């Protein structure tokens, strides 16, 4: 039988008082005392209580995220568009390459966007295309008139504003019209594939990337080269748009399918051909008007009258 003074023997909690009386030199530890002591030490060191450590705004965001009630910013605020510029460089590179080298059966939105559209790439593509058209048009005009003694080169800065109006209007108004049309058809036919407005803007922005190298080739004053580059750019850019928006209209009425696909291709072609015709057209050869002195006119009249009088 175990001894009564065995320190390893299990003791009941009711005998705690008797144990303390038997050994009055024992050190006792209280959990409450430790909590109070640690709190006092934290206050002395300048730390706030645990409840005040977290930022109230951060805690509110965590609460909204956990509850699924995180509110999105309105579309007229900078916070709404900030997320569309938060994109990795390699993603932009992949999307540019995918827009220039389309593969049959690959939807640009499903393969490259993956429900994460951006405005960074489309914005800089449109801006680069605007300056490429304006600068290339001025250089082309300079090369065409190079060596002509009567020609004085003056840069046409108005081409920048005209090109910007044409490119950005196409890149925003066309997606807006297409998004509104698809939304209207989706309300009538419930099983149609729907795209968001930002996804359509992203597709149209990246589809213009192929025109940047084509415009640079337009500097060379060879019409056959310009038209070949236009045809190649139209085929690549148009195929990206057609393959992307085909799933959204393929279950619709055949007349609607033909109309929307034709509108996408025709407007894309009009943009390219219009830019080529306006910014890279051959200048008309204007014959200089040589002023004639009145004395020369009267002398020529007398010369004409002289043979007639002699014959009479």
Structural class: mainly alpha
Number of helices: 13
Oligomer: single chain
The N- to C-terminal Cα distance equals 171 Å
Mean pLDDT: 76
| Helix proportion range | 55-70%
The radius of gyration is 40 Å
Describe the structure.
- The protein is mostly helical.
- It is built from 13 helices and no strands.
- The protein has helices at 16-22, 31-45, 56-67, 78-82, 89-100, 108-113, 120-144, 158-188, 197-207, 211-217, 223-249, 254-279, 294-311.
- 20% of the residues are buried.
Secondary structure elements and pairings:
Layout: H1 16-22, H2 31-45, H3 56-67, H4 78-82, H5 89-100, H6 108-113, H7 120-144, H8 158-188, H9 197-207, H10 211-217, H11 223-249, H12 254-279, H13 294-311
In short:
This protein is mainly alpha-helical.
Primary descriptors:
single chain, 312 residues, mainly alpha
């Amino acid at each position: 039988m175990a001894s009564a003074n065995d320190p390893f023997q299990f003791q009941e909690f009711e005998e705690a008082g008797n144990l303390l009386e038997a050994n009055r030199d024992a050190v006792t530890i209280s959990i409450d005392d430790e909590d109070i002591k640690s709190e006092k030490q934290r206050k002395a060191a300048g730390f706030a209580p645990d409840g005040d450590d977290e930022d109230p705004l951060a805690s509110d965001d965590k609460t909204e995220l956990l509850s699924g009630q995180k509110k999105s910013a309105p579309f007229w605020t900078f916070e709404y568009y900030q997320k569309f510029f938060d994109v990795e460089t390699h993603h932009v590179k992949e999307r540019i390459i995918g827009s220039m080298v389309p593969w049959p059966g690959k939807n640009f939105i499903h393969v490259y966007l993956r429900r994460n559209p951006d405005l960074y790439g489309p914005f800089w593509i449109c801006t680069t295309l605007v300056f490429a058209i304006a600068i290339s048009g001025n250089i082309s005009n300079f090369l065409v008139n190079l060596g002509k003694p009567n020609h004085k080169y003056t840069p046409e800065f108005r081409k920048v504003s005209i090109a910007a109006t044409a490119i950005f209007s196409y890149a925003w108004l066309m997606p807006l019209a297409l998004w509104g049309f698809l939304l209207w058809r989706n309300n009538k036919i419930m099983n149609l594939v729907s795209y968001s407005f930002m996804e359509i803007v992203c597709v149209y922005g990246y589809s213009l990337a192929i025109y940047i190298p084509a415009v640079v080739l337009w500097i060379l004053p060879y019409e056959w080269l310009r038209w070949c580059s236009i045809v190649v750019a139209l085929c690549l850019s148009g195929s990206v748009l057609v393959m992307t928006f085909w799933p959204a209209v393929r279950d619709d009425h055949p007349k609607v399918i033909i109309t929307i696909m034709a509108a996408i291709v025709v407007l894309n072609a009009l943009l390219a051909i219009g830019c080529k015709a306006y910014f890279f057209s051959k200048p008309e050869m204007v014959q200089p008007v040589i002023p004639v002195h009145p004395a020369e006119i009267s002398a020529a009249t007398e010369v004409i009258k002289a043979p007639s009088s002699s014959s009479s």
